Every structure is written in C-alpha cells, then in structure tokens.
Amino acid sequence: MLSPGRKPSCEHFSALAEVLQQETRLLRTEKVNSQTLFSMIHITGFFDAALRQFAISQKTFDFIQCAREESPVSRSFQHHISTFMGLCFKHHIPASMIWDFIASVIIYDNFTPDMHMFNPSDVFRNLYRQSCISGVHDYASFQHLDVELITADVEAHIISMFSHMKYGGQSAATIRQRSLERNLQYWSVLSHTSICLTCLQRNMEHYLECGHAVCDDCLVAFGELIRGQEYRYNLLNCPFCQEEVHFQARLLPPTCRVRFLGIDGGGSRGIVSLKFMEELEKTLDLPYPLQEHFDYGIGTSSGGVAIIGFFAKSWTPKQCLEFFLKFARIIFPPKRGYKYSICAILRRIFASYIADGGYDAVVLEKALKEAFGLGRVFDSANSRPSGMKFAVTATTISDATLCLISNYNGNCPPGSDSSYKHLRAKKTTDEMLLWEAARCTTAAPTFFTPKYLEPYGTLQDGGLAYNNPVRPGLRGVRRIWGDIGCDLVLSIGTGFQQKLLSPVASNVRNLLQDGALARVYRASMQSLSLNGQLSWEDHWHGLDEEEKKRHFRLNLPLVGREPRIDEVDKMQYLRNEIQHHLSDMEGIVPTSGISAGITDPERSLRVMWTFSEADQVPNTASLGSSQPPVFVQ
To answer: Which Gene Ontology terms describe the biological processes this protein takes part in (predicted)?
Structure first.
C-alpha cells in the first residue's frame, strides 16, 4: 500500500502488470483445460443468447445446449441407435467396434466446422447419453451387458477421438471416416431402407450403386460440389463401404423454398395435364429440362403415371404425351358390338362386378412394365441427378386410407404423421418397382382390379381420397423440409365441367333423376375427394393473399360433361381445346408468345424459379456451423 502523499513509481506499476499477466495466464490455462476459451465471435453469440434467456428465465445458462439451439440433436437419434443395434445383433458385430462406431457418430454430429471445442464428456452427458442408454437397452438385455458400462465405453472412445481431432488437426468427418475404415469388413454388410447409417441422425434420402444410402448432410460432408452447377454434388466413393460409385445429386439451396408440382387424376383426360406441361415448356424456353425446375412432384392416377415418367424416367413433356396417347388406347381398347338395351347394360354391370373391373389388368401391367421397366421407386439415380422428390397416391381397399408411394423418407420421427400412410419398404429387396406404383395409383374401381403387393397389402386408385393431390403433397413437403414453405405451387387439372350454381334449391323432384342413387352419385362426384377443381378452389380460398401469389392452377373448362376416364376417342378433342385456352397461362408466364405482359410481376413462374444468395457469409455472432462437417483427405 502506498502511504498518503506518496506518488506511485514505475516499479509499482510494473509489479502490478506482472501480477495481472500471471493471473491472465493462469486464467487462460484454466479455460483451455476446461474447453471454455471462446473466440470473440462465440463470446458475442453466447452473450446475446444469455441476455435473452435472463430476460425471461432464471435457469442457469447452458453453453452446450445454447450452441446446439439452431441444430439440435435429432429427435430420432434414440430410435436410430436402437435400429442400428438390431442390425449389429443380427450380423454378430463385436461390441467394441459398435462403441467405436457410436462414438465417431457423436463426434461427427457435434463438432461441425466453427463449433466450439467443448469438453467431450460434458457434450456426451448433456446431449447424447440418455439417447444412448435408451437406444442400447434392448441389445444390452439380450447380451446381458450393463448399460452404464456401455455408455462409459462410448464416452471413453469419444474422449480419445476428441484428442485426435484437437491435437492431430483432423476434422470430425475425417474421424468418422477413419472409424468406418478400421472395421470396413463389418460395416459393409449393413444396410437399411430408412436411416442414414453414416450419421445415425437423419433418414437416408439417396441410394447409391453399392446398396448403401446417405442423407443430404452426409452427401455434402463426403461429396464434392460440382463447379458451375448450383448445389449439385458428386460422390465418388460410398462413405460407408468405400466402394467406388458414380453418383450426383442436387439439393435445395438454403435460400430457396420448395417448387411444387401436383397433377390430378382423370384417366384418358390426363392428356390435358400433359398438353399443358408441353405448352409450358415451349413457352418458358428454359435452359434445363422442365422437371429440374421442380423440387417435389406428386400425382394421382393418370397424374401419377405422368409424375413417374417425368421425375423417375426423366421424360420430357413431349415424350410423356406420346407415351400416354399410346398407353390410353392400349388399356382402354374399343369395345365392339356394344348393345345399349337395359338388359345388356345390367349384364355388363354384373360381369364387371364379378370380374372386379371392366378392363384387363394384365394388359395394364404389361404396358406399364414395358414403359417403366424394373426400376425401383426409391433407387439410385442413373439417368438424372438424385434429389428430385416425387410421390404417387394410392388408397387401401379396406377403408380408402390415403397412401403415398415415394422416393423419399423425410425426417419426421416415426408415427408423427397419422393422417396418411407413407409406404416404405422394410428391406431393400422389398422396394416397390415403378410399374407397381403406377399400377396401384391407376387401379380405379370398376375399371381395374386393385393390386396386391406382399409387403404393403392391396392398393387401389389414390383418387378415391385425393384426386387433386396438392394437400397430401404439401404435407409431404413438410415431412422432408420442415416448415420452410413453397416458392411455387403449380397444380394441373384434367378438365372440368363449367356449371352455374343454382341460387335456389329445386322443389321439383323426378324419381329417376333425383332418386337416392342419383343423388348419392352426384354428391360423390362433387366431393372434394373426387373433384379436383373443387378441391383446388377450397384450398385456394384458405390461403392468405401473399400465399396466393405463389399458387397457380392450370385446367381446361369444358362446356359439356367431362369425358369418362375410358373415353379415349375424346383425347384429340381435349388436346385441340387446350389450344383455345393457352391464354389461361396469361399472367403467370411473362412472355410475348402468350401475353404482351403480366398483370402482377410477382405472380410469375420465372420469378418463382429464381432465388437470391449472398456473395459471402456475413461475419455475425455464430455459435457453430449449421452445415455438416467437411471431409478432408
């Protein structure tokens, strides 16, 4: 202490500076040892988050939980571990290799680029331990192992891998890759139709030639970005078995929302939707195939056949149209010598009822097999980049429950959506074939028999539940991408009868025209399930004004009745009628070929097919990368 009146000397300040420097060094060493020496970017982010929490809660601030706030551990992690343990039990994988596998999964998931290097034990106990305990419980019971000892082994592996990452300069993805390579002979035999075995966090979305599969994040981590093509990745080796593959995929840009295509069912009237697609492609004159400007497509009945040709076979609208003209005439052959007496009609109805269909399903299946071959709905993409999601609708014969047959899994936890059945195979060998999916969605009652498929049951036309598949399709979008929404929703119909609504209910009743059967028939045909146009109008009126700018409908108004789904002789008439209604695209296609201008520049397909992106990542307070880790050789 300085006595009163004495001035401090330089020696006093030097001594104080030395003490402060020593304390600073000790404090830094302590923070380094406890893995709490944060960068300035992390300090800023944590400080802002702490202020927000203290303003609304008195809970202790948790740095680790805060760092994972924007990219939390998957809710499916426990289920995926349990599934993985079942595979290991089936294939007799040694326990020590399993714990090494799970530890590298946790390192890979948590220590992404720019993530702070927290104490690995704290990370494990805070974020993953409980999921591991629950996930290995059944396996431990069968093997008579102690769950606490298992989690201790996993934690020990995590600590060891963390030291290699921290002091050896290896990335988390490299640690994961090395773990897989060490026991390659065991892991190469494992496969699953739902979960991504590379990360155990997400569901798989891309089949590879080797039979394994990856999710979007693992594709980014272990693949290479293709130069000159936005968000397209090339994968040269399967990250799980290291087998050489030739695989490309496109992902949804992070600043872009989903571009959606839905096509109604209508039998031979499907010519309407395909002709609209052909005219749309001509008018827009896009540099890429039309289907590559959509991220998700869904179709019912004839629309399902179009979606399969469009997305799975990479057919152009013109090719789809040419196929459909031949296809419809093959499956709906002209019936010669028809008699129209009441007895003849009743005889045909009875025969159709006994046969469970008025047309030969064998002919239908043969035509579909010739068109689509033996390719699977969910398969490795050869002729096109993987990543374009599609689905076709079907219904069960017991209660007409909607079923979606798709080439995606989505990331919803099991049982989170009970509004429809999402049909997925339990085994790779049970994946539905393209022609089988087309057969199910076209099995219209009274026309074709339903289709029985052993892993899935007996299925029929999806139009019985949603002839306009926009609503189930939008639920599918949420299943895959969450709540990001759509930049574009394009729905295409198959023609509809224009009717004037009667302002007053009729008080005149004709027994033949207004009897019970006639009323039930008319009511069913005007239901939202079967009437695609009414379903669209109901959907449209439920949107807010901003959403309406992104939703489009193309359909053909008809003066007379709608042709029956087997009236193939009306297809040319429908095709010609579309030429008189190309102006219906006015206002959504900004081109002088159709219209001199558009009334609302925001309601434009071209506008919806563009997205904005920053030139560089802004230097803001970030607690960790939301992007997956990058593998470095």
So the answer is: arachidonate metabolic process; glycerolipid metabolic process; lipid catabolic process
pLDDT in tens, 502-518: 555 555 555 555 544 44
Q: Are residues 384 and 411 in the same domain?
A: yes
- Residue 440's domain comprises 258-499+524-608
Answer whether residue 14 is part of any domain. no
What's residue 11's pLDDT? 66
With contact defined as beta carbons under 8 Å apart, do 379 and 308 qualify? Answer: no
Q: Which two structure tokens, joined as six digits, stand for 590?
A: 């900004």
Q: Which of 250, 271, 293 is the last residue of a domain?
A: 250
Q: 452 has which bridge partners?
A: 458
Residue 519 lies in a domain: no
- Residue 562 maps to a domain: yes
User: How many domains does the chain contain in total?
Assistant: 3
Q: Which residues contact 176 (CB under 8 A, 6 or more apart)?
A: 104, 105, 107, 108, 198
> Is 360 part of the annotated catalytic residue set?
no
CATH number for the domain that contains residue 448: 3.40.1090.10
Q: CA torsion, points 294, 298, 300, 306, in degrees to nearest 10? A: 40
Inform me whether the pLDDT recorded for 342 exceeds 80.
Answer: no
| 405 vs 440: CA distance, rounded Å | 9
Are residues 306 and 182 part of one domain? no
301 is catalytic: yes
Alpha carbon distance 28, 15 (integer Å): 20
Statement to judge: residues 344 and 321 lie in one domain = yes
Distance, CA of 446 to CA of 450 (rounded, Å): 10
- C-alpha separations of 141 from 103, 131, 138, 148, 244 in Å: 21, 16, 5, 12, 38
Q: Which of 301, 302, 380, 604 is catalytic?
A: 301
Instruction: Quick: pLDDT tens for 44-57.
Output: 888 898 899 888 88
Residue where one domain finishes, among candidates 191, 218, 250 = 250
Please indicate, yes or no, whether residues 353 and 326 belong to a single structural domain of this protein: yes
H or E stretch covering 296: strand 296-299
Whether 186 and 298 share a structural domain: no
447 and 478 in a single domain? The answer is yes
Instruction: Examine the pLDDT at 593 and tell me if it is beyond 50.
Output: no
Mean pLDDT score, 242-258: 90
CA distances from 282 to 278, 317, 318, 426, 631 (A): 6, 10, 10, 42, 42
pLDDT value for 609: 59
The rounded distance, in Å, linking the Cα atoms of 200 and 240 is 12
**CA dist., res. 525 & res. 266, Å (int):** 12
360 & 470 share domain = yes
Q: Minimal CA–CA distance to 101: which of 191, 171, 199, 169?
A: 199
Asked if residue 564 and residue 490 are part of one domain, the reply reads yes
Residue 425 located in a structural domain: yes
The 3-class SS string of 439-502 reads HHHCCCCCCCCCEEECCCEEEEECHHHHCCCHHHHHHHHHHHHCCCCEEEEEEECCCEECCCCC
Taking the C-alpha atoms of residue 397 and residue 450, their distance in angstroms, rounded to an integer, is 8
Q: Distance between CA atoms of 382 and 375, rounded to whole angstroms?
A: 10
| pLDDT confidence of residue 601 | 46
Structural contact between residues 285 and 293, judged by C-beta atoms closer than 8 angstroms: no
CA dihedral of 366, 372, 378, 383, whole degrees rounded to 10: 160
Catalytic residue chosen out of the listed positions 171, 461, 535, 604: 461
Contact 598, 588 (CB under 8 A): yes
Neighbours of 580 (CB within 10 A): 9
Per-residue burial over 398-431, b if 16 or more Cβ lie within 10 Å, else e, is eeeebbbbbbbbbbbeeeeeeebbbbbbeebeeb
Which band of pLDDT confidence, cut at 50, 70 and 90, is reported for residue 259? very high
